[in-house]
């Protein structure tokens, strides 16, 4: 973060941001990357040809030709080349080896994970910015325009790791993002399915799930899932093997500003939309008592 940006923050925030910026600089100036080519996004080294072609055409039709809407608001597509996934996995291993050897105390991706790493903190922030701006924002503009998909302007990029000696599962939650990209890097694993339970605004986050909102997804290496951050979800236990996923929580500052002034989110919140249609929620009582996961 530059000094100019720091000077625009309130002083409490400024010292927090300064500390984080110092933390990142310390890592970047000491950690020796394994694959330097990862740190500059080279599209033909990262993406499968079908994904590149759709992005180059940049039309709704081209996106729809490679992306399937597996359940309302959950978009799935082939994205990463196996060779890129392998390089990322090796880079993450290398980073963790460095952390172990130097005993550097790293921050975990969020309060839900004990393992995993923040990719932005060890130099991958520029490449992930490019990934968001040139690849995820054009798609989000088409499918998630109602939550600021066209104006995504910052991100939190990290990996999560599950299996023996790692995290086991991930509880039911919403992300601190407008749009989330979740792509499996590998490797061999059993379990770890994502379960989705409908999109909700802050006010309705704990309301019942309707039967048509129940959707389970099995991760496939190289395959991406794109969903609204407010789409409630979790990950089941990875029962054997080792699963690593790359997450990019994409945010829109202008959408967040706008949202503060609004009360009706019926274009994307399942409960606001029921209220607007004047639908009784009685028929969902059964779903309320059904297990969430
Ligand atoms: O394990 C997964 O695939 C889900 C991760 C996730 O939802 C998150 O980190 O926000
Ligand atoms: Fe999540």
TrEMBL record:
Q: Which residues form the Fe2OG dioxygenase domain?
A: 153-252
| Record's keyword terms, sorted | Dioxygenase, Iron, Metal-binding, Oxidoreductase
GO molecular function annotation: dioxygenase activity; iron ion binding; L-ascorbic acid binding; oxidoreductase activity, acting on paired donors, with incorporation or reduction of molecular oxygen
This protein's cofactor list reads: L-ascorbate
- UniProt keyword annotation of Oxidoreductase present: yes
Tell me the InterPro entries matching this sequence: Oxoglu/Fe-dep_dioxygenase_dom (IPR005123), Pro_4_hyd_alph (IPR006620)
Q: What is this protein called?
A: Fe2OG dioxygenase domain-containing protein
| Taxon lineage | Eukaryota, Viridiplantae, Streptophyta, Embryophyta, Tracheophyta
